[in-house]
Amino acid sequence: MNRLRSYRYRVVDVFTAEPLEGNALAVFPDSSGIEDRTMQKIARELNLAETTFVGPASRPDCAARVRIFTPAREMPFAGHPTIGTSFVLLDEGRVSRESERFALEEQVGAVPVRVEAGERPMIWLRTPPIRFGKTYDRALCARVLGLDPGDLLDVPPEMVSAANPAAFVAVKDKSAVDRSWLDARGLLTLKGQAEESIFVFVFTPTPDGAYSRMFAPEHGVPEDPATGSSTGPLAAFMMRHGLISSAAGTRFVSEQGTKMGRRSLLHVLIRGARGVDGIEVGGYVTPLVEATMTI
Q1: How many CB atoms lie within 10 A of CB 38?
Q2: Mean pLDDT for the chain overall
Q3: 108 and 141 inside one domain
């Protein structure tokens, strides 16, 4: 008979200062002894957008190694897990509470983290290198999202990736964002014969920045309340098409998850003209649950 072991974990709400909003994340601060297959099963059991498992870093420039799992697969990088895990490591003293900068080791490499001091610290990550890919037919995108072609802005939908490819679709207003929906069949229609897994990110420009939704049925996430890994690419896409300023120091907010009752506010900072010095994504974190799992 296998001996059962108990593992402590925490649940935090990321990209929100309010409990039960934002994007919930489970963090196992000490994953020693948990096998890869079990990590995936735990993520499926908890059924949050992502669950992270923390271990010692293999790189001297990183404070810890973080593995990130959706209910369906492991991710090379993700935004709300990076922000939320950073909060837990700071809160538990695994990283000095005085630290203003450190890095986490993820599959994509070292992800720089910055802590903006204040009454309630805001935690920022630097988005990994961003690449642009294929464009998509506007009419096809409208159809698979349940919209009319006239609901879309005159901007070509396009693949943009910072380790996690996403098809960005710009629409005219919040109503079109809220009416959009994508299931697994619609995603297959959009992808065609492509084997690469993708997200589909629908947004409209707003005076504050953007109002957004993201669908990832292939990852076991029908809709994600907050997608930090796609918010840097969102900024790059919006700058590319003149939807936001590309000046150094530009800040804006992407509001996501509101339609599903999990309002999230993802802050963006453009460093250098057109982001040549990086694009940072930041937000607040609200602790919610401390628990143990016995397996």
Answers
A1: 15
A2: 96
A3: no
